[in-house]
Specification:
3 domains; 229 residues; two-stranded antiparallel ribbon; mainly alpha
Length: 229
């Protein structure tokens, strides 16, 4: 393939690309024209007209056209458009929509851990992106342009914050349980050691006699005699 054929192929590809690029340009220009007018209405410029020559909106200034007329001083438009939209934005910005991550399988421990981590990540993203102000800006764009779009990308870095997660494991342990009151007993309960040996009271007389004289194992909570086996 010579240079002339390569140049011809490039021109044909450029023609195809330009065709698809110009296909939706009319709809795009119509949207930009409407959005620009809404921006002007938000700023309080209500007397506007579109110039086909400049391809932009022009403001009709009553004071310049009727400078010698006193009526122009009192003819002040009221920006009802902005007041109406601000009331809607105020109602929608009371609370920021929350993000709640749910596990795909509630019986899977890995899915539960992933859902909990997603909740913590959402809170971290809120803090680093100033979510209340960003939500207000999104509502303003949606009210004046009819659509809100954003670009999101994942990035992991320790500077965004870290947290420690405790690890637990299950271990089986054997312990003594009183069969009468279900109290967990110490391992040395069967060594006939008295806890209140130096300060016994009247209620400890029978328990004191059973422990020291009869060499019995007695529950310190309910005072019932227990069998070591």
């Amino acid at each position: 393939m010579n240079e002339l054929e390569k140049k011809k192929i490039q021109d044909l590809l450029k023609t195809v690309a330009n065709h698809f690029d110009q296909e939706d340009r009319a709809a795009r220009q119509r949207q930009l024209r409407n959005w620009r007018r809404l921006k002007l209405l938000w700023e309080g410029f209500q007397r506007v007209w579109y110039s086909e020559v400049a391809h932009d909106w022009r403001i009709w200034d009553e004071e310049l056209n009727n400078a010698d007329n006193d009526q122009a001083f009192y003819d002040k438009p009221i920006n009802v458009f902005r007041a109406y939209l601000e009331s809607i934005i105020a109602a929608l910005s009371v609370t920021i929509p929350g993000i709640k991550c749910y596990p795909d399988d509630a019986d899977n421990p890995m899915d539960l851990s992933t859902a909990k981590a997603g909740d913590k990540i959402s809170q971290l993203v809120y803090r680093h992106n100033d979510a209340p102000l960003l939500w207000l800006h999104a509502l303003y764009i949606n009210m004046t342009e009819g659509m809100t779009a954003c670009y999101a990308y994942p990035k992991a870095d320790a500077k965004y914050g870290t947290y420690k997660e405790n690890e637990y494991k299950d271990e089986e342990q054997q312990t003594y349980i009183c069969p009468f009151c279900q109290m967990q007993l110490e391992d040395d309960i069967f060594t006939n050691r008295e806890i209140d040996e130096f300060q016994p009271d009247d209620d400890d007389i029978l328990l004191h006699d059973a422990i020291l004289n009869e060499h019995q194992s007695v529950c310190p909570q309910c005072g019932m005699q227990m069998d070591p086996d």
